[in-house]
Each structure stands twice: as structure tokens, then as C-alpha cells.
Amino acid sequence: xxxxxxxxxxxxGRLPAEEIAxxxxxxxxxxxxxxxxxAADRCYFCYDAPCVTACPTSIxxxxxxxxxxxxxxxxxxxxxxxxxxxxGMCARVCPTETLCEEVCVREAAEGKPVEIGRLQRYxxxxxxxxxxxxxxxxxxxxxxxxxxxxxPAGLAAAHRLAMLGHDVVIHEAKxxxxxxxxxxxxxxKSTEDFAAREVDWLLQIGGITVEHGKALxxxxxxxxxxxxxxxxxxxxxxxxxxxxxxxxxxxxxxxxAVNFIEDVRQADxxxxxxxxxxxxxxxxxxxxxDAAVQSKLLGAENVTVAYRRSRAEMGASRFEQDLxxxxxxxxxxxxxxxxxxxNGALEAVELEYxxxxxxxxxxxxxxxxxxxxxxxxxxxxxxxxxxDMLALEGRKIKVDDQGxxxxxxxxxxxxxxxxGEDLTVTAVAEGRDAAMDIHAALTGAAG
Length: 447
Hints:
The protein is α/β, with parallel strands linked by helices.
């Protein structure tokens, strides 16, 4: 008997399991030692290297590449991890093409940068495979800190605080730690359960307890956390998904892209993840591209990304755009959803062409209908569970440069906080820097 998914054209097993497994193999295979040495030899080891300035965590990139060149990848990893404790995951998911590698002198001179991301992965993988943790915990300060959210910002803050001698309790709403690294990044970018293994490795510092199933506004109240701990760090992410605000949005086949990506990442067998024959993804960021590419890799025949502005304004990098196109995804620019067609289950999406004058977007009235039995919404996320006691800036928690909120004793970082791009590497930097400010506040130490 056909399931409701099958009846609407959304079904699992569109491709053989072996083909799907091959489709979801590592996007950037790891270097072997010889390849790493050759890649490291291309670095000019610039003085005042622009790549360091472009890195949100300010990793000393020439130093770690020099250490790889000298045959000391574990030392290179320590250089990386001192600034970015999640350097292994950032090496896999960072848009290096728009950060460190974009400003590489080799890129300017030859159009081919030093592959900094792959070199970073090589070094951190070597160290993690040794099973050792390069940092030691300081003597206990007797202070305790609550971290809400076990995503990149929360993990980075927790590690730095624990290393400085504070006792940390991470409260995480989901059953697994990792945040977007575990649930929100395309499966082909983080293979072999790397996100979970990196969390386990990070926790080797000691002094960190993780309690799952604890969500702010449900099992947790900010008032109680503030009373029970010496400091609180919020890294709750953006859990809400913006709506299309169209009639029929509740019909079968209309889904949130973040939920689809999570389903793929958490699936025991990728061949069991249902996907439409004709898929439309609405949005222009990394989430939209990840959802579109994974739909294609699961066997969707026609996948279209519909973005309301121009290619140049798209949030996803040109590398990500080209990756999607190389997998057979159609990219449509200057179109916005205007209607959903279907009788209980999605059958087509009506798109309206747009124009922009002076930065103001408007519909032109010209329409095109795209067949679709599955639509993924990837038009941004919103803050959920934010306590009334904290001031907002736009739709995020207002923080200063040190991550301090409007309430004394409470800091915030990552996607939930104002300022900075919504990137894993930015979240790590914000968590690390807030931890240093928390440490200074609790001990009187110099920040």
C-alpha cells in the first residue's frame, strides 16, 4: 500500500542505497601526509598575513602551516585549537572561499589560494586521532557557570571556562550536543559522525557537565539560572523558522529546510529519508543550498532554488552556488513565492519575478509556475524562548563586544546574539571571547 508520502510524490529510496552512500561521501577528502606537505609548501608565510585578519577566530595561519611543513601536524593543531577549539569542524564547514582563502596572496596572484581549510583539517585530524587533549584544566576557582545551548558558541565558551578552572554545566534542549554542527549542516560536509566525536574530544578538558532535555522557557528559567550560578552564557541559536505567509502553507509537502537537514543528518539509513520528485527550495543562504543539494543527492529529479534577489546578493557563497549547479540544482534569481497549488498535497509553486530599486524589493506581476511536490522553507530563522528580561536588537539578543547582555551576569553569543555573521567560526569566536570576559568578571583577572 502506498504511503501518504508516496501518494504525494514524496518517498524514500529513490536511488539505491549504494548510490546514495557514494553521493554523500566526503565533500573534500582529507589530505594524506604527502598532499599536506605539498599544499603547505605553497604558503608564502606572509608578514601581517591577510588570512589571519580574515579569520573570525584569528588563527595564526602561517604558523600552523609552517608547523605542517616542518612535519609537526600535532603542533599545528595546537596552534589552531588555541584560538578555535572547534577547528576540526570549522575546517570542514567554514566558507573559507570567502574568508581566509579569498584574501590569500596566492589567490590574488594565481587564482588558486593555499587550501587553508584542508590543511587545518589535516592537522586537527592528526591530533584527534592521537586521542590526546592538548589543554589542561587550571586549579578550580570555585565559580560555576551555566551555559544554555551545546552548539558551537556554547561549547567554545564551556571549554575556555573549564580550562580556566570554572565548573560549567551545559543545558541542552536536544538529546545530543553539537547544535548546528550536529543537526544543521549538510551530511556530506561532516561525515563519520565527526560532530559528535569532536564534542566528546572537547569534553576531555574536564569540569564540564552536560544535561540534555533542558530548554530555556520550559525546564529552565533565566531567573533561576541567574540565582543558581555565578554567571550565565546563552547560546540558544535561532529555533524558529520564518513563514511564507501564503495560503496552503500547512498542506502536505511544505516543510522547513532545517528540519529536513536534521532528518538527513540523524537518519540511520539515508535511503530511508523521503524526498520529492520535484523539489523547490525558497531562500538564498547556506541552509537553502544544503537542502537543495541533499534533495538531489537523495534522488529528486528536479530541484530548484528560488531566491528573491540577484545572484550577487545571495547569502550562499559562489562556491556553494556552483556546487549546487554541479549537482543539477537549478538556481532562479529575482523570484519570490506568490502561491501554493494543490488539493491537500503540494503540486506546484507559483513564483513572481521581482525587481529592486534603491534596495527596495517589489513584485513585477510576471508569474511562473514550477511543479513541486515538496517545498523547503529556508528564508531565515527567529529567536524562540527569549526571556522578556533581556533587551533585543532587531530579532536577536542585544550584546556588546564582550557578549554582555542588558542584564548583569548574563552573556550571549552565537546566532541568538546581535552582531557578526551566522557562521560556526563566528559563534566559536563569540563563545571564546565571552568566556574570557566572564572569567575576568568572576576573578578580577585582566580580560
